[in-house]
Amino acid sequence: MVVMKFGGTSVADRAALDRLMAIVRAQRQADAQQEGGDARGPIVVVSALSGVTDRLLGVAAQAGAGDIDGAIASLRDLHQRHVTVSEVVTDEAIRTALLGDLAAEFAELERVVAALGVLREVSPRWMDTIAAAGEILSSRIVAAALNAQGLPAAWVDSRLAVVTDGEHQAAAPQFPETTAALMIHVDPVLAAHRIPVMGGFVGATRDGVTTTLGRGGSDYSAAIVGSCLGVGEIQIWTDVDGMLTSDPRIVDEPQVVPHISFAEASELAYFGAKVLHPATIQPAVARNIPVRILNSRRANARGTLITAERPVSERPLTAVAAKKGVTVVDITSTRMLMAHGFLGRLFSVFDRYRTPVDVVTTSEVSVSVTVDDARRLPAVVEELSSFAEVSCEGQMAIVCAVGDGLQRDPAMAARVLAAVGDVPLRMVSQAAGRRNITFVIRERDVPTALSRLHETFFAPYPVSASVAGTRG
Ligand code: ASP
Ligand code: MG
Question: Measuring from atom 6 of ligand 1, which residue has the nearest CA?
Fold first, then answer.
């Protein structure tokens, strides 16, 4: 059985919902073919229609500022958008029932907003109640639409099925309790050969107070549900083809990475591979459940598969990425020579000013670090200067070559650096895990460095296999 999670753009409008239904139908047919009458699922998890969570948080802000009329006008606008999208439900009776559910949901939101507008205060708890409506609404629409198309679905209230702690806006799932709740609210639906449809991002505490898992939390919901139920695969349906070998704005023709390990995906996430936040799929990876990123606009493209480990590929690298806007801080002190405690003292300064450090290299008397949030850097530098010499250089970039293959081939580090050629390197780092080689260069050298790396390691045909006669 699989969990299929559809993001905001994959449920944005009627055309998107038509694609979603075709994708769910195809999965259902594939399962039936493979498993016959015993086939269960899929479980469908959806985001709010794209843009709706932002709008709802805006409504909450309006209410908090006492602008009740403005908040209610925004809600009516949102209501209309959901009514329009509901035209996708082709069965008259099912659509009427759905419109009644949507109206009840919006009536409740209006009451909440009116009350908060009088109080002029919106606590995180009420923020969650308002924000959660986006997924409650979208999941109701999807369940109705599937039913109207003869795909037997049942709406599942995520506030009953996903149990969290009370940390509003960043709630943590309680796994044993969620598993028990899923057995009550989802398992019977599956046993009746129906498709459970639930909103992502949303849960509730043990006491039934609505919570959300944090922005982008629908992927997390899919992973939580999938891992609690021990499904065979989690599919993340989005609007891109998967993870790419490099940044399409910088290199020519990056390719989709067919298979990536969780550790590799985590390294790349820092570099803005925004397809998903690796932390959100961690529960799935921990249980060895494969996660597949797929494009709902091109359902037949193979996408990117993420697993805890991945099989050896002929390509030594999986991807190359860069991050601009980085500052290098050089800290030199002869006191560091054969002394202890220096690094601790140094990093405690960054810690005190809550400034994350990314790449670190050291020699006997100096430490270089990179910082990408330089807001508190002047204060950091001032404090460091009391015990070391400090210099900073802005407009730098981190380039990272990622691949589990780096662990196998001892010559890879040299090959990566050779490919970069004459671009000056300010820092070079390879951690003991040897899953990536990271170096720091000037921002303006990024296009050259990244293109050279990509051409060397991601030629459309593996170089050894390109026979002149067949290509020329
Ligand atoms: N709708 C929520 C958000 O926009 C959750 C999600 O889409 O994953 O953050
Ligand atoms: Mg998302």
Answer: 216
